Amino acid sequence: MMLLNMPCMEKSDVYSFGVVMLELLSGKRRHLVQLVRSWLVTDWAWSLVREGRVLDVIEDGMDELGPREVLERYVLVAILSSHP
């Protein structure tokens, strides 16, 4: 099977899993549009993680769904899945 002229492989499944996780955790769509630029949710989340702001990826109100450590791991799994 081909996707965008590239074969579908396990890597694309892992990437897609990470993107969906980030969308669910952040409440944001795959493409974020701001006044000046457009971001992919993966790049936006990665920039927060690099700054040490892992939990800022989580949508407001979702932090009550579990311990901070667990939510932080969810974000890190999503980042590792969606970033090379």
UniProtKB/TrEMBL annotation:
Keyword match Repeat: no
Keywords carried by this UniProt record: ATP-binding, Kinase, Nucleotide-binding, Receptor, Transferase
Domain of life: Eukaryota
Molecular function terms, GO-annotated: ATP binding; kinase activity
Entry annotated with the keyword Transferase: yes
InterPro entries, per database record: CR_Ser/Thr_kinase, Kinase-like_dom_sf
Protein name: Putative LRR receptor-like serine/threonine-protein kinase RKF3
Lineage of origin: Eukaryota, Viridiplantae, Streptophyta, Embryophyta, Tracheophyta
